[in-house]
Amino acid sequence: MKNLIFLLALSLVSCMNNDSDKTPEEKQKEQLTTFYFIRHAEKAADQGSDPELTEKGVKRAVNWVNYFFLKDVDHVISSDYKRTKATAAPLAKAKKLGVEIYDVKTVDGISLLETYRGKTVALYGHSNTINAYANALQTDSIYNDLKETDYDHFFIARVDKDGNSNVVKESTDFVE
Description:
Blueprint: H1 2-16, H2 24-29, E1 33-39, H3 55-67, E2 75-79, H4 82-94, E3 99-102, H5 109-116, E4 120-125, H6 130-136, E5 153-159, E6 165-171
Parallel strand pairs: 1-4, 2-3, 2-4
Antiparallel strand pairs: 1-5, 5-6
Helix pairs in contact: 3-4
């Protein structure tokens, strides 16, 4: 008899935890959102305001594929500049994703969270934007713009379903 009551109670609890009546949007909001805010790779200095990557920059872009090899990525997004799109392209190709373009003048951390909640996103931006996106998603640390010569640092921002967040500044040593 005790076993029967236990089984009935267990069945009732499992039925109550069934989330099949939730919409896809509700399920998505319950998940962890992860952003990798990455600065474009090394750019050519003599090509005006929208330069290509240098040879070293191309190597760095390819090395991001190795970094993300065992990580799930749902979206690869880039500002609409040659250097950011070229940095994002190898990862997008490796993950069989397109490179989504965003407008650096209208996007901020909160709008990114609203758009990509529950997803893992590799965002390629600039020395003065990726820190701003990271800062907008948390209140623990304030990250300054990256130095013009700093291509080694990036930010990982994680936001849970309740809005709790964690942002860390990481570094790479991809290119020698």
